[in-house]
Amino acid sequence: MEPSTDVLSTKLKQRAVIEFLTAENVNPIDIHRRLKAVYGNTTVDRSTVSRWVSKCKLTDPGKMNILDKHRDGRPVTVTDEKHRIQVDELIKNDRRITQNRIADIVGMSQERVGFIIQQLGYRKICARWVPKMLTQENKKIRVECSQKLLNRYHQGEQFLLKIVTGDETWMHYYDSEEKRQSMEYRHVTSPQPKKFKVQPSAGKIMLTVFWDGNQAYLTDYLEKGTNVNSARYIESLKKLTITPDLTHQMQPVPLSNS
Questions:
Q1: Which of 57, 128, 189, 225 makes a 20 to 30 Å CA pair with 137?
Q2: In order of start, what are the domains of the chain with their CATH numbers?
Q3: SS3 state of residue 164
Q4: Rounded distance, CA 16 to CA 27, Å?
């Protein structure tokens, strides 16, 4: 934004005064003090006065140009429709292109590139990690399986309650009390009860649970010093298949989110 004419006029007047007082051999501190008494809050700072005094001493008295030099500045057409189209095409050709790269190609500042990108409605987001990339065959199988289950559900079969799923969780060696569980009825004048923070125990154990819509069939604790790997998981599934409550069911459907 360009400064107002009044501000420019005040600065030019102060420069003229600085030039005159410099010719009178007045030091910069006194010049600034005298300017402050006349122009108040619009007075330039002391460092500016010193800089202009140095410039005045390099020229003859009354011969110094106190006007600002002409500067081209930033073109007003930098964010026109032509540049918007160029930025849009660059982004569509390379979704990972950087603002610095766009600025070099188009020939504008990075700040203007960011402004145009915001106007175009773009935002840069990270890719979401997924467990693995499915092939077309994998996707087809999943669709067919989902369609079969959906058809069974629409036919009124209560197979959802028979689906057995499993999950793992860490079990600590203590039961921590939540803050709301420590709430008590007290009078207004009664002191507030204190609850000391319990340090969590380092001891914990991995628990694997298998359940369906009616009950839990297997709770399997991981032995100390072992890891949950394919061999350990197969062992848990073997224990599940010989569970009495599960063997009497007709065609159970085991599922797992692991």
A1: 128
A2: 10-57 (1.10.10), 81-120 (1.10.10), 136-174+202-242 (no CATH)
A3: strand
A4: 15
